Amino acid sequence: MKNFTAPSWAPLLQRHHINTFDALWNLDLEPVDVPNLERGGHSEVSLLTLEDQRFFVKRQTNHLGRSLQRPFGEPTFAREFRNIQRFEALNIPALEAAWFGERRSQGTWCSILVTPALEGYSDLIAWHARWNQLSEHEQVSVIEASARLLATLHDTGWMHGSLYAKHVFLKSQPGHWEARLIDLEKSRPLLRRTAERLRDLDVFTRRLTTWQPEDWTTFFTAYAGTVESGRFWQEKLNKRLKRKGKS
């Protein structure tokens, strides 16, 4: 069994006596969504509030993902926890982990990942839903903050692997906007840098139907750093979408 507790959250978890695997596993919490029964196991996410701080408690049983490094599989939350730590070390803004643990016994492999809610943030789909209510300055700020986040991810040599707009979270701060990534289960280093960047960008563009051509020009300019480089990536993506029959 392997356990991790973030030092910043350890006192809070200890005060409420939920700083052990058994205590967290036995919490009676309502799932926030339908449990995931794929991969031959069970995986669910619940919401927990402690002293005005919300946490997502993610628990799973035999819900395994396989890779070249781990051909026999591991809990997908173990992979996400590892990626959270990697992103933190690489200064890629993302969610954080408050607690992680796993237990394997008699053919059953359980894991728990506890992540603090991104208080004050909203996902990009939520911002997009009220796009016409935002000022022009706010719209540009959201676009550029999202683009800079994706550029940081890719320039560091990583891909998200499931980069839907709902996995990009943003918050307005005095003088600037902050953006962070969530759902890092499928994140991994870029192998084919151009193709896999485009794959992430392809997924990201879906459902952002309100953004106009000038918005995408702003996005790609911020993503690539210059108008010319932005045009390069925009044209590359458009060619990919045409081959797939999406435009």
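^ that was protein a. below is b, sequence first then the tokens
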Amino acid sequence: MKPTNPKTYTVRRMLHDTLGETTAHDSVSWEQAHALHDFVFPWEPEKPSAAITFRALHDDHGLYWQFRVRDKDIKTYVDKNEKSEVIFGDRVEIFFSPDTTLSTYYCLEIDSLARVYDYRANYYRKFDSAWQWPSGQLQVQARLDENGYVVTGRIGLQSLKDLGLLTHGTLRCGLYRGKCMKIDLQQEAMQWISWVTPASATPDFHIPSSFGIFQLE
């Protein structure tokens, strides 16, 4: 399978008069952002493009982003309400890496209940689930609607800089979705969706070819 990356998404700079609205799901601020629709099922090429819209904006302090997912059958797993429970249900995902080696990279997986499974990882697939995004630098909201669910968030630019992720207005990012077919704690039952088509014959987002580039205006 040939990789299609690096794809690039331009993150527009937000107008100052809309700063107070940035984390609202239906804020008019999102009309300023480029709408990204080209999500695919990399390992199920017969399927049409996935029904997801992603948008992002930034200002001097934060990266603001939103996923809108069309889904009439949303599944979540709740037992002890631990963050790791996110991986058993429907979710959207953002990965960040400072470079193409993925020697250390950072992952956010978020479900329709706004629960965040945040973790640090080392190539290849060595996960540190105890790690947490720097305190006060991540806010997430989610809601269900008649079409599916919406996840809206803000990441402080300071945390992206401190983690070595934001350099000269550039971020290396992966955008993904896990579509849960059924809740199964023993055997994975997911369809995988991605912005970039990874260079892998089997489902895997934890490789350099699954990442694209965010360019902040």
